[in-house]
Hints:
Two copies of one chain form a homodimer.
Chain A: H1 8-26, E1 31-32, H2 34-41, H3 45-53, E2 65-66, H4 67-78, E3 84-89, H5 93-105, E4 109-116, E5 125-126, E6 129-133, H6 137-143, E7 148-151, H7 155-168, E8 172-175, E9 188-191, H8 194-202, H9 209-224
Parallel strand pairs in A: 3-4, 3-7, 4-6, 7-8, 8-9
Antiparallel strand pairs in A: 1-2, 5-6
Helix pairs in contact in A: 1-4, 6-7
Amino acid sequence: MRKPKIPEAAIKRLPVYLRVLEETAAAEIQIISSAELADKTGFSPEQIRKDLAYFGAFGTRGVGYDTILLSRRIARILGLHQGVHAALVGAGHLGYALARYSISRHKDVRITAIFDTDPAKIGTEIMGVTIRPMADLRQAVKDQNIKIGILTVPATEAQAAAEQLQEGGVEAILNFAPAKLRLGPNVFVQNIDLTIELQSLAYYTSASEEAAAQVVEETSSSIDS
Amino acid sequence: MRKPKIPEAAIKRLPVYLRVLEETAAAEIQIISSAELADKTGFSPEQIRKDLAYFGAFGTRGVGYDTILLSRRIARILGLHQGVHAALVGAGHLGYALARYSISRHKDVRITAIFDTDPAKIGTEIMGVTIRPMADLRQAVKDQNIKIGILTVPATEAQAAAEQLQEGGVEAILNFAPAKLRLGPNVFVQNIDLTIELQSLAYYTSASEEAAAQVVEETSSSIDS
């Protein structure tokens, strides 16, 4: 089910377009120009046209996009039109935050099963979803037709948990554990590593030596020229 | 302090290299080949060479990279060699999870100030860091030389909080609020939107219509050929 042809970055922008289109449609505005869509999403009109062209021609030149038609189309492209079930593995602080957030707000991707190893947590609920033992995971994923797994377990437990998700039939995993998962080619893995996010952010501050070096370099070249 | 020349994707890979190099150096292994670095990070040797070339030539052809020298160099490039202070705004479930995680593990990027609007939370501590009122934010960011802001506030409060971080002198923001921030050019913003992560992940499952369409397409072309 993997589709390598379309860049991941383009896929990541589709939900952003979707959100703006749905908001615009909800305000009973039928047409949005690519300039407006660009302003509201922060992406350039060229980028938007290019992204949407991957899925066929959309919109009318000089007019814009039909908000309802395009939002429906993007929802179908993403597979959100019929709702997607997700399983959360690891009900620690981050897992708890994600579960509360997802269960309360997402209608299209919804956490319908939660698993943890801690006997004290098993049997308790997060927003109406009961935390179950890891031993139930594989069968529950199959029974509930769960397609997405969210891993918020310690790094040492990530690989084993991911394998169980895979065996249950999960096709995509959002991995928050700082561990590189080794799975079969039919499981798409998206890593979100908060340490890496914070460390790479430091590059954009004056703490970075590279920043200082480039300032020097730019100064030198302006003296030379 | 923004450096647009090097792709963001390359900057995101640097902390991954750093982690592997530090682990390898800690195991008292002096040299790592680009093949080993590739295997442990999941990126291709070509990608690694290309990324490191942005910062000058590293490594010795046919030998590899000096683990200590390269890890030090990457730390300096990222600005992690001297430690970077971060402020967390919003001590809800996600904020709490991030604060606990960051304060306990990160030595190089460290949350040293936490802010919230809730009077019940103000004055309480997360891992030894006291939660303060929003009114203290600007001055505290200045006084503590905080360069990074982490926003875990509701979407409606994100812009105002971001502006206060900017006025205090923050240079980079990790924004978890589902809101597009409008700030000056000297503040780098990295958005992590969990709704978008989950929605885009659905594309890689069989729930996506595009997946089904491409399977049909591939089948047709193999019949044609």
